[in-house]
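Postdoc handover notes: sequence design on the structure in folder B. Input tokens:
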């Protein structure tokens, strides 16, 4: 590992893609790819915690994923519940707080109950925040934020007709969190797929051909190394950034 520990991203977001392809290449059922992918989640979250990354957001189940075959959805929900139960003690031990974003009320009741229990048990953990995007869609998040604003306006909670960027951000699922510094997407696809469209406005994007189950900590270090090579200008000139 050859990382500058003084220039680490504060927040890493990951689109975990390639589980099905990984399984197909090995003649396995897609569910086995998802199962192996959940092990990769544990490895990468552990690596980020050891580095001191404060926030990690994982695109675990998109709004569009509800259209997948019912047996695959059932298997994914079972794996999610299993992950939450098995990893709960490890989260507590390592002071990792679990947070979810998305329309999570659509999750099956047993899964939602387990999710809420894990969030409640880890709410005082303060070393790292693990964010699971579940039943999540970026456009859905923005629409829900606008509808909440309209409802509060109607209820007289505010009268100002001007909505600032900062105010609008407070109505997003990620309210109170910093925007991702680095987005990683595995499996060779080069798009963000309706993931955090507002929050990724100035994120550094890193795409890799590596399938998610094969994305081990060495691959994470490569992504962070590439991030550290880049100059983040946020609309300024290089001269302004360098001071």
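Designed sequence:
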């Amino acid at each position: 590992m050859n990382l500058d520990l003084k220039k680490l991203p504060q927040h890493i977001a990951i689109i975990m893609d390639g589980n099905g392809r990984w399984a197909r290449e090995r003649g396995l059922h897609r569910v086995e790819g998802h199962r192996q992918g959940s092990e990769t989640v544990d490895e990468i979250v552990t690596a980020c915690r050891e580095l001191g990354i404060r926030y990690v957001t994982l695109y675990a189940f998109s709004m569009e994923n509800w259209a997948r075959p019912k047996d695959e959805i059932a298997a994914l929900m079972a794996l999610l519940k299993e992950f939450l139960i098995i990893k709960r003690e490890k989260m507590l031990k390592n002071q990792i707080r679990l947070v979810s974003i998305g329309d999570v009320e659509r999750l099956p009741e047993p899964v939602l109950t387990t999710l809420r229990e894990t969030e409640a048990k880890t709410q005082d953990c303060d070393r790292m925040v693990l964010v699971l995007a579940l039943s999540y869609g970026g456009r859905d998040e923005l629409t829900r934020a606008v509808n909440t604003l309209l409802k509060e306006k109607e209820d007289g909670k505010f009268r100002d007709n001007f909505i600032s960027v900062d105010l609008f951000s407070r109505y997003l699922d990620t309210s109170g969190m910093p925007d991702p510094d680095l987005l990683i997407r595995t499996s060779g696809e080069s798009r963000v797929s309706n993931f955090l469209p507002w929050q990724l406005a100035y994120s550094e994007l890193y795409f890799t051909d590596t399938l998610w189950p094969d994305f081990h900590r060495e691959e994470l270090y490569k992504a962070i190394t590439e991030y550290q090579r880049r100059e983040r200008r946020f609309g300024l000139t290089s001269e302004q950034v360098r001071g």
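Context for whoever picks this up: The first strand starts at residue 11 and ends at 15. Don't rerun without checking with the PI first.
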